[in-house]
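Page 37, continued from 36.
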């Protein structure tokens, strides 16, 4: 009986598969943007051994679906075009996909600050209000975003084949749901390059970087083994934590109400509202989002990546020195597009973010080629882990993309500490990326500290002299180290004249 049932199962499977319609991956759907200047993989499913032909522009490329019903072709390099075209896929059935453009495609990934929608931005100073930006978005139909649905409970070993997302043309109706950082990034690239811009938004709030790295990579680093054991322990402890919250929920809510009322009267930060603990499996655990939100995108042709993440690793800065290069190198290796440009947006100042995490992001750019770091310290909202001022964030990231990927030689970094010397009771600091000169924004330099041989740091006086910075403090006669912005919520006001903020640093790096 078992053999008979198995036989009929196989027959039914074969019959279904033999009649499967040719189908492209959802990355190749209406309004898609394809990457110019490189071979462009197109793939999907069909019946086993089905002949599939892909037509685009003057190309016609044929392949045969393999024994799993999968097929892939590679178009020869394409030139940018703003005229929508058709992509035709012919198998036993025929599919016509309209609105296809060719231009520049960037993967925009990370956690909630990357996912932060355009409708939620807040104006700061001269930057625009959300309503004005959304109205202006109507002018940019050649910018498109491919949105990936969130993959909950992604802690599974099986790698998804298709993210089942879709492309949206930028207009005043769709733009509110675009990633704000991705939109401003893409808008600036479009203004400079004058070609269609495709933005792949693969972001998920509250996720740690290890969620986005494949298992083979994580397991290859002995210093990362604890990630898996810590995750297993968190899974084990979760039911007890949930039960503990349920028991004390009413008293927690009462305390929250009282603390909120007091904070309002004193004009202090409102406490976070109590909520049940989230299962560690909810956002994927180690490798989970690689399986469901990154691997299915490969080998889609991209130009580069913008990465805005680190908040969920904010207390693990030393470990991040290993994790971030591991992610970059593994993504590049799997995409097989060479060392494509990778832009790291530095996490904002907030009470849960240790300076060692920002330092790890900077160190990565010094050791991993073709990378850059977008400093956004002056865009922080120290009371909110989600600063609403996203326009300068996207603009600065675009400036760095222009430098890395498009040979723009303009200065696109803020000042970065390079070396120090001592002269009597003073420390002389030298920087790279000074552009056309160092400046102190809105007054004298602040957030500098200095230490003597006892390594006890005290507030320091810092002055710009001939594009170096002289640092000293009363009582420190033999200085040995200087720090700037070395806190959870830095108040850095050192810039270059090009308008880029300096990154926090410490000369006593360990």
């Amino acid at each position: 009986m078992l053999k008979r049932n198995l036989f009929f199962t196989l027959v039914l499977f074969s019959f279904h598969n033999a009649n499967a319609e040719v189908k492209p991956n959802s990355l190749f759907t209406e309004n898609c943007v394809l990457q110019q200047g490189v071979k462009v993989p197109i793939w999907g499913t069909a019946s086993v051994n089905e002949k599939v032909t892909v037509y685009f522009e003057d190309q016609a490329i044929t392949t045969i679906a393999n024994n799993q019903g999968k097929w892939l072709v590679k178009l020869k390099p394409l030139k940018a075009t703003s005229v929508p075209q058709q992509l035709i896929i012919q198998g036993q059935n025929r599919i016509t996909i309209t609105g296809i453009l060719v231009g520049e495609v960037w993967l925009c990934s990370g956690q909630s600050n990357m996912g932060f929608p355009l409708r939620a931005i807040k104006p700061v100073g001269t930057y625009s209000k959300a309503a004005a930006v959304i109205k202006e978005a109507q002018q940019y139909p050649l910018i498109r975003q491919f949105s990936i649905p969130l993959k909950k409970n992604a802690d599974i070993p099986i790698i998804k084949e298709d993210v089942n997302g879709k492309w949206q043309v930028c207009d005043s109706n769709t733009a509110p749901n675009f990633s704000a950082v991705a939109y401003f990034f893409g808008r600036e690239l479009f203004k400079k390059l004058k070609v269609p811009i495709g933005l792949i938004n693969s972001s998920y709030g509250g996720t740690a970087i290890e969620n986005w790295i494949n298992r083979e990579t994580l397991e290859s680093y002995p210093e990362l083994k604890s990630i898996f054991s810590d995750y297993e322990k968190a899974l084990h402890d979760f039911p007890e934590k949930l039960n503990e919250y349920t028991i004390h929920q009413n008293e927690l809510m009462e305390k929250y109400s009282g603390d909120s009322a007091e904070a309002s009267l004193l004009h202090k930060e409102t406490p976070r509202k109590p909520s049940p603990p989230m299962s560690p499996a909810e956002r994927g655990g180690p490798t989970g989002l690689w399986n469901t939100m990154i691997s299915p995108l490969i080998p889609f042709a991209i130009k580069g990546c913008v990465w805005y993440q680190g908040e969920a690793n904010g207390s693990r800065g030393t470990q991040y020195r290993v994790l971030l290069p591991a992610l970059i190198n593994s993504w590049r290796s799997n995409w097989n597009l060479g060392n494509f440009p990778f832009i790291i947006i530095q996490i904002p100042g907030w009470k849960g973010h240790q300076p060692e995490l920002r330092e790890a992001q900077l160190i990565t750019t010094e050791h991993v080629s073709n990378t850059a770091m977008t400093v956004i310290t002056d865009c922080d909202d120290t009371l909110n882990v989600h600063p609403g001022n996203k326009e300068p964030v996207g603009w600065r990231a675009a400036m760095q993309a222009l430098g890395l990927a498009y040979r723009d030689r303009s200065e696109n970094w803020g000042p970065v500490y390079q070396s120090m010397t001592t002269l009597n009771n003073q420390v002389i600091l030298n920087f790279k990326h000074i552009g056309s000169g160092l400046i102190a924004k809105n007054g004298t330099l602040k957030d500098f500290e200095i230490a003597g041989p006892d390594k006890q740091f005290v507030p320091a006086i810092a002055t710009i002299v001939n594009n170096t910075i002289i640092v000293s403090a009363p009582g420190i006669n033999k200085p040995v180290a200087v720090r700037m912005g070395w806190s959870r919520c830095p108040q850095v006001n050192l810039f270059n004249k090009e308008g880029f903020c300096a990154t926090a640093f410490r000369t006593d790096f360990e």
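Residues 1-18 have pLDDT under 50 and may be disordered. Flag for discussion at group meeting. The chain has ten helices and 24 strands.
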